[in-house]
């Protein structure tokens, strides 16, 4: 293998980020010919094709290109850390912190995390992306995210994990539901009612699989990508839903109320976890994000049932 340069890696990543050599060259303030030459030299150095040119003049990575891109982003990130540390002092935490978070977990973790870094570590630029577990973990694998918060039961193989908080499934019912005052509920007690679930893969698949493993065929109605919509539907007595992280309030968007009751069935253990690139020691800012998230989740009681203590 021939030698390649950091500059070639930068241009390669820029092409992937912008979708074409032309756009990458423009953003990098170089000529298209220079960008094309850098990519060709990189492909020659590693001995494989890294990009596929499509008919629409867009470029997409080959399998080898996808693998290299993830490593290139980590290498460039470490180089950036060295540069910022030298410029600002090694003791000061700084740099980019790119976080992915499942939409159902985000309200629990992200506001406090953003406030913590904004007030305590202003030299760290925090950005976050909400989405489904699969796409966020793919972002970690590809190097576009530094970490992602997902549920352990939805974590992919091949990524490192750090547990943030254990969670316990709870049924969401209308506040006036006959079972709303119970200490716990078996899934069989609501099997004849509509299940109104979060429409984000693999959430529906996981929940329906959980119910079927308990011998119940769920009656799915009105799936929604918006948890507040689900809460309002449930509050009107139209069905039930599930949560892993219990909100601090039972009041819905339209000023109705729901109740949360732990599921009594034996279910697989689950937790909120931070997934990380495999085999790489995380930067201090990532370690701090995990440390604070654990502390914040413990204080707020993420995933607790009513009456439990942190």
Overview features:
D-Maltodextrin-Binding Protein, domain 2; 310 residues; five-stranded mixed sheet; Arc Repressor Mutant, subunit A; 40% helix; alpha/beta; single chain; three-stranded antiparallel sheet; 3 domains
Oligomer: single chain
Mean pLDDT equals 86
**Number of self-contained structural domains:** 3
Task: State the shape.
Answer: elongated
By CATH, the architecture of the largest domain is named 3-Layer(aba) Sandwich
Distance between the termini: 54 Å
Q: Cα-atom Rg, whole angstroms?
A: 23 Å
Number of strands: 12
Order of helices and strands: HHHEEHEHEHEEEEHEHEEEH
Beta content comes to 15-25%
**Helix count from the secondary structure assignment:** 9
Describe the structure.
With 310 residues, this protein is α/β, with parallel strands linked by helices. The chain folds into three domains: 6-70, Arc Repressor Mutant, subunit A; 93-167 and 270-300, 3-Layer(aba) Sandwich (D-Maltodextrin-Binding Protein, domain 2); 170-262, Periplasmic binding protein-like II (D-Maltodextrin-Binding Protein, domain 2, 3-Layer(aba) Sandwich). The protein is built from nine helices and twelve strands. Helix 1 packs across helix 2 (21-28), helix 1 (6-18) packs across helix 3 and helix 5 (106-120) packs across helix 9. The longest helix is centred in the N-terminal third of the chain and has 26 residues, at 63-88. The protein is elongated and about 70 Å long. The relative contact order is 0.14.
